[in-house]
Amino acid sequence: MIALEFLNDSKVVNYTFEIPLAELITDFFDRMKSCSSGYASLDYDFKKFEEADIVKVAFALNGDPVDALTFLIHESRAVDFAKSYCRKLKELLPAQLFKVAIQGKIGGKVIAREDIKAVRKDVTAKCYGGDVTRKRKLLEKQKRGKKRMRMLGNVPVDSEVFLGLLK
C-alpha cells in the first residue's frame, strides 16, 4: 500500500496501491465489491511496464490439449495455480465410462495431475450363482472395451465447466 487517505468524516477512504495488472484482472474487482457491499469503485492507471517471469500453463484432458484452458501465470504461482485448477476440473467434469487424466503442463513438463475415475457398469448383474469363470470373462471383456474407449474417447468440455472455473 502506498497511501491511505480519509475523506468526508472518515466514511470515505481512498487507498492507493501498486499491484500487477494480472492480479487486478483475476479476482480483485469482485472481492472489492463483495467486501464493500457494492459501494467501492476502482480507478487505475498504468504506472510502468516491467519484465516478469511469466509461463504458459496449458491443461490437457487425456493427453489432448484444451486451448481454452491455457493461462499466462507468474512462474512463482504456476504450480499452485495448476494444482487448484486440476482439482476444480475434477469436480466439474462429468465422469465418463473410462478413466480421464487431467494434466497441467508448462511446456512438455507435467506440473499437476488429477484423475477422474471411470464409471463402472455392473456387467455381472445378470450372472447369478454358477461358474466364476463367466464373471471373470465378462470383467476382462469390459476391461478391454474401456481400454479401447479411452484411446478413442474424447472428453466434452461444455460452457458450464468454463463458468464454474471462473468462479
Would you mind describing this structure in some detail?
The chain contains four helices and six strands; from the N terminus they run ββαββαββαα. Helix 2 crosses helix 4. Helices cover 35% and strands 26% of the residues. The mean pLDDT is 80. The chain has two domains: 50 residues, no CATH class; 113 residues, Alpha-Beta Plaits.
What's this model, at a glance?
With 167 residues, this protein is an alpha+beta fold. It is built from 4 helices and 6 strands.
Task: Provide keyphrases for this structure.
167 residues, alpha+beta, Alpha-Beta Plaits, 2 domains, four-stranded antiparallel sheet, two-stranded antiparallel sheet, 6 strands
H/E series: EEHEEHEEHH
What do we call the CATH topology of the largest domain? Alpha-Beta Plaits
Strand residues, percent:
25-35%
Structural class: alpha+beta
Task: Find the CATH superfamily of the largest domain.
Answer: Elongation factor 4, C-terminal domain
**Fraction of helical residues:** 25-40%
Task: State the total count of DSSP E strands.
Answer: 6
Query: Which radius of gyration do the C-alpha atoms yield?
Result: 24 Å
- How many helices does DSSP assign? 4
Termini separation = 27 Å
Largest sheet: 4 strands, antiparallel
Strand order of the largest sheet: 4-3-5-6
Q: So what's the overall shape?
A: elongated
Number of domains: 2
Low-confidence segments, ≥5 residues, pLDDT <50?
none
**Under the CATH scheme, which architecture of the largest domain would be assigned?**
2-Layer Sandwich
